[in-house]
């Protein structure tokens, strides 16, 4: 079986958008001969909402000029659309705009295909939309009661500000999404111990034992520790702990119920973590006044409304801000272009999109407690944005209809996403694709504790992305991850570069992880460098690992038969669900479009269900990889279970000798013309196209 010679027609249609996006970046308003340009409006810090807003600067008499607020410009566009529907633009001048509430574009703010509505930052200037409040009235802490709680070494260095006096009374919860402090545009650290790393659980109480295939713990959140520093927390008002309590890929924040000094026992408040707690897992304490001992740490007393802070340098006027409102911008309209702005300091998602044919381009999204951009709908495009210092995910998109396999046409392309999942550490990927016919291409994703890209659904395309240094605080996780569905098919992962992915404490993670019998994904032409377990089929079927390049991967490929072993119950549940009139969540696998689009589903209940069937592993190239085999397998360099081989094709892989790669250490992955690996039928990978398209990245 070969990699698909062609993609479904709708995916080719999505791909054609990529060439058009180049013109978006250079001319995001999509001006052409078909669009009647009707009028422009302007917003400026020097503006006035009583003016016409039709010029960028005030006139000499200060009687007319730009508007002062986005809301006034929005009303002007609405009025103009009612009078004369056409293309309109709003240009916002350089400056900082503290929004008093979410700025929402609704259906009556929509354009149309031939007349888009464009909201754009002044070209080449920084235009900041802020969900925060500036704090300037800082003073040094001199209250003896507070000083006595602080470490002696920092007394006289801690400053404080009254949040209630600044008009802020909603502080949120330390669990996540609450108030955050930022200094010079950088998130500060909510006070914690240890300042870096974790404390280990030394033992757990036996109250409600749990045993998951030999991994033992307890369901009740009562455990022991050795570090005596924790005993200081008994005087804290609202102490919390954050830990990976049972599995290396599942974390949660808990308020502390009690600390027992004599036995060095810590109790957390229920509800307890769903998986339980076990010895040698790791955690840290936070939201602790007594642990402000490092420059950049802060603590909010939610009773008094006082924020305490250890500044890393002198506080200048307007250099400090706290997050205040949840969402900065909502686009519920259609045919809207939103371009060039900087969004920061939201407690929740910075930007949400729930319309159709909207274009977000050239944004900087930074310093938010939630997700950067969340989109749903059809034909939504997120292009050329830079997202970092995010509390949760980078970009999340939902679209398409799984029952009818109608594609969304949504596109996430040419975005740089890094330093995300600051608060929610796992399952908050750089990019999340959900639904049918979504595309993620040419993105650069790096420096995160868990996933790079997560996806679910059908016929999604993930290509030409560069992912590095992710999953550094978790194990049994994937840089690109999906799982647990037999009917989510037709997904293509090609020409991606994954490098330096080793897991927490270098204990191992996965490059592309098809978990728990996920089936029918094509992995073609990907490059894996320094990835512990590069490509993994976790008991699934009809998957392809073809024409990939593995360098320093241990092992290159994993294929198991978990559906016949520890996951038999999962298999039985799927058989039962799909046997009942062939229906799963309203999806009928024996009727079109599923029966025609994915004919393998017609025999999935009779052709050895639960067995990995129809997987193809061929024409791959390995260099400097671990060729030892944990299980019996035909291809050295893999971890292939003996009972996973019978119904699969594993052949023509280059695993021994030098494949003669030009200069992989410096990013040249071309195989030399005389490479013996080319005799297997290996096709050269277009590595030069992977990652950001820098010539089109700047959209301002």
Structure notes:
The chain is mainly β and 700 residues long. Among the domains are: 132-191 and 291-321, no CATH class; 199-286, Elongation Factor Tu (Ef-tu), domain 3 (Beta Barrel), CATH 2.40.30. 8% of the residues lie in helices and 33% in strands. The chain is built from five helices and 61 strands. It has a 14-stranded parallel β-sheet, with helices on both faces. It has a twelve-stranded parallel β-sheet with strand order 3-6-28-31-34-37-40-43-46-49-52-57, with no helix packed on it. It has a twelve-stranded parallel β-sheet with strand order 4-26-29-32-35-38-41-44-47-50-53-58. A hairpin with a 2-residue loop joins strand 10 (181-183) and strand 11 (186-187). The radius of gyration is 27 Å and the shape is globular. The protein starts with 8 loop residues before the first helix and ends in a 29-residue tail after the last strand. Residues 1-35, 627-637 and 696-700 have low confidence and may be disordered.
User: In percent terms, what proportion of residues is strand?
Assistant: 25-35%
Individual helix count? 5
Strand order of the largest sheet: 1-2-5-27-30-33-36-39-42-45-48-51-56-59
| Sheet having the most strands | 14 strands, parallel
Distance between the termini: 45 Å
What is the strand tally? 61
Shape: globular
Classification by helices and strands: mainly beta
Taking pLDDT < 50 over at least 5 consecutive residues as the criterion, the unreliable ranges are: 1-35, 627-637, 696-700
Q: Approximately how much helix is present in the residues?
A: under 10%
């Amino acid at each position: 079986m070969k990699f698909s010679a062609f993609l479904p027609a709708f995916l080719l249609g999505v791909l054609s958008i990529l060439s058009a996006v180049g013109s978006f970046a250079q001319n995001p308003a999509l001006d052409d001969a078909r669009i009647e340009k009707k009028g422009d409006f302007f917003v400026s810090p020097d503006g006035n909402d009583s003016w016409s807003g039709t010029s960028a600067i005030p006139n000499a008499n200060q009687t007319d000029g730009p508007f002062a607020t986005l809301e006034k410009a929005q009303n002007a566009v609405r009025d103009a659309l009612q009078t004369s529907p056409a293309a309109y633009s709003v240009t916002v001048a350089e400056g900082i705009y503290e929004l008093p509430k979410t700025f929402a574009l609704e259906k009556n703010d929509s354009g149309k295909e031939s007349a888009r509505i464009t909201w754009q930052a002044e070209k080449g200037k920084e235009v900041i939309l802020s969900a925060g409040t500036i704090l300037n009235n800082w003073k040094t802490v001199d209250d003896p009661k507070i000083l006595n709680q602080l470490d002696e070494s920092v007394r006289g260095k801690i400053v404080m500000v009254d949040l209630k006096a600044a008009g802020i009374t909603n502080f949120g919860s330390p669990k996540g999404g609450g108030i955050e402090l930022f200094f010079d545009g950088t998130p500060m650290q909510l006070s914690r111990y240890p300042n870096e790393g974790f404390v280990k659980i030394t033992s757990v109480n036996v109250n409600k034992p749990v045993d998951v295939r030999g991994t033992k713990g307890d369901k009740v959140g009562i455990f022991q520790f050795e570090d005596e520093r924790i005993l200081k927390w008994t005087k804290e008002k609202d102490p919390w702990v954050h830990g990976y309590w049972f599995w290396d890929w599942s974390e949660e924040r808990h308020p502390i119920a009690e600390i027992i000094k004599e036995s060095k026992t810590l109790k957390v408040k229920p509800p307890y973590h769903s998986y339980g707690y076990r010895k040698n897992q790791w955690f840290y304490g936070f939201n602790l006044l007594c642990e402000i001992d490092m420059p950049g740490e802060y603590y909010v007393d939610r009773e008094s409304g006082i924020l305490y802070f250890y500044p890393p340098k002198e506080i200048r006027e307007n250099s400090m801000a706290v997050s205040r409102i949840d969402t900065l911008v909502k686009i519920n309209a259609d045919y809207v272009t939103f371009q060039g702005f900087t969004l920061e300091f939201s407690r929740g998602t910075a930007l949400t999109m729930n319309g159709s044919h909207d274009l977000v381009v050239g944004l900087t999204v930074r310093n938010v407690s939630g997700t950067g951009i969340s989109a749903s709908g059809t034909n939504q495009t997120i292009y050329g944005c830079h997202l970092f210092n995010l509390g949760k995910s980078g970009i999340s998109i939902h679209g398409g209809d799984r029952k009818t396999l109608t594609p969304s046409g949504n596109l996430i392309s040419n975005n740089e996403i890094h330093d995300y999942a600051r608060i929610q550490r796992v399952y908050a990927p750089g990019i999340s694709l959900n639904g049918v016919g979504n595309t993620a291409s040419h993105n650069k994703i790096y420096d995160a504790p868990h996933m790079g890209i997560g996806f679910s659904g059908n016929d999604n395309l993930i290509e030409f992305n560069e992912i590095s240094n992710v999953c550094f605080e978790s194990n049994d996780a994937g840089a690109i991850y999906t799982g647990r569905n037999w009917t989510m098919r037709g997904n293509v992962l090609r020409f991606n570069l994954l490098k330096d992915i080793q897991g927490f404490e270098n204990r191992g993670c996965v490059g592309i992880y098809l978990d728990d019998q996920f089936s029918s994904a094509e992995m073609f032409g990907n490059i894996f460098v320094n990835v512990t377990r590069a490509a993994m089929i976790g008991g699934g079927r009809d998957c392809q690992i073809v024409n990939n390049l593995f360098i320093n991967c241990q092992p290159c490929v994993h294929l198991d038969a978990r559906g016949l072993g520890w996951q038999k119950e999962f298999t039985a549940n799927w058989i039962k669900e799909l046997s009942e009139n062939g229906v799963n969540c309203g999806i009928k696998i024996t009727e079109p479009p599923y029966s025609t689009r994915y004919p393998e589903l017609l025999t999935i209940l009779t052709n050895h269900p639960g067995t990995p069937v129809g997987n193809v592993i061929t024409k791959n190239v390995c260099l400097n990889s671990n060729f030892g085999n944990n299980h019996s397998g035909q291809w050295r360099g893999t971890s292939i279970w003996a009972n996973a081989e019978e119904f699969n094709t594993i052949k023509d892989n280059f695993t021994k000798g030098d494949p003669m790669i030009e200069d992989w250490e410096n990013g040249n992955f071309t195989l030399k013309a005389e490479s013996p690996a080319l005799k297997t039928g290996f096709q050269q990978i277009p590595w030069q196209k992977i990652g950001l398209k820098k010539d089109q990245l700047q959209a301002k």
